[in-house]
Quercetin 2,3-dioxygenase
Amino acid sequence: MTIEYATRYRRASRIPAEPGKPYFIEKGEGDRAHLFGDLVTVYAGGEQTGNMFNFFTCEGPKGDLIPAHLHSDTYEVFYVTQGAVRLFAEDTEGQQQEKLLTPGDFGFVPANCPHAYRMERHHSQIVGVAAGPGGTFERFFESLGAPTEQLGLPREPLVPEEEKFGTVPRRYDVRFLPGHRWRTRQP
């Protein structure tokens, strides 16, 4: 059984809002949100880590490319535990690369590097960690998407209105790059 807490972000959260308290969360019982076709589950965020890092999973079906974006102050880790995920990344000099990641594979994207990903197999899962001097961005998922109590994937993809993308950078260190083109081979 997981304890529920009321926080400034949610009426019921499985993550204690106060830093400095050990806690445990059962599989799948973190703070969940639907965004695009994916289910994002946050297990630790800025409130628990003094804005040092966050820890989350993102699972979804084979689908479309998640829009290109960057984080000016945040470093992001992609560790694939199920399925396959194609990670696209560009360094600060404009050199692009892509890699198909399968279970056990790891991808790292430094701050200020455009990146995107695409689930390549049904029910793929990424374990993500983001850290940096600017804090953490885990509340971005429920702000751009929608908080959910549902354990599974959304019935229909939740694609935000285009103007909503513009509100995100000021609050969560996520800047979308409309019109960004990947010059890699993209099968």
